[in-house]
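hey can u run this one w/ zinc ion bound, need the structure tokens asap thx
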Amino acid sequence: MTATVTEVETVRGPVPTADLGVTLMHEHVFVLTPDSQANWSDEWDEETKVAEAIDKLTQLAAIGVRTIVDPTVDGLGRDIRRVARVNEAVPQLNIIPATGVYTYADVPGFFAERGPGALPDLPEPMVDLFVRDITEGIQGTDVKAAFFKCAIDHHGLTPGVERVMRAVARAHAQTGAPVMVHNRPAGNTMAEVARVLGEEGVDPRRVQLAHMGDSSDVDLLAGLAEQGFLLGMDRFGLEPILGFEERVATVVELCRRGWSHRMVLAHDAACYIDWLQPDLLPFLPNWNYLHIHEDVVPALLDRGVTQEQVDDMLVGNPRAWFERR
Ligand SMILES: [Zn+2]
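ok here u go:
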């Protein structure tokens, strides 16, 4: 007997996957470094930042986006109460929260001497913590996470990165919630992801490779799609990494080759991110929540992508990724 899970947890509670509608598959509300910020920053003002976020997400909902998938976890300043406060004022938008740890190198200091590699070697505590976020709630609230997030970047598969990735895989095995992995396609980190998650028995169809849109290597991307991975074409507007035309052309060619059912679209934007000096934002004029609807979708349609393929990437694929069979 096979059961299908047709509801997904959001910040405002479970929503039928059929009601997710137009979904941007990788957008943050806030990306913060709470420790550094408390020590050094004079940019943060809680009331102002919450009000700005409400304004930006209201505009996003007004253009027809019903859902954003927010992979903000430990390492990115996750504060689910703050996101819930924002979402309360934008109830027309679903925000899907994540659990996991975001690191490119070592585990956060909190986990350094808790778990494998500690003296003495201890069992991995991350697995139960991640499962708790999925089954009970995040940070003592009843808001449940709906997917897992981990990362691998220019340092490759460090012991810390591998520890998080395997913990995510084991929590996935217990819960069935899907897995999103931050990648650096220029370093072909996807090969390590495929190997480690493969060893853990994770089905590639449950795995979203984030930031594949930073690559224009269509053969490489088609190969990953063929293995079953969902490709995050998810950094539209981050043009210093890859320009608009290249990002669009890559999606167009993958659609032409029949892979629209293996791609999702997003900006990896945030209402506020403390990683960037504010004077840099004018150099990223398209890095905002509206760019896909205002510029990218028209360009895709113009270059031969069909409305049905756009709907795959914005509606059908997000829905299918959250449905568990
Ligand atoms: Zn991100």
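Residues 7-322 form a domain with the TIM Barrel fold (CATH 3.20.20.140). anyway lmk if its weird
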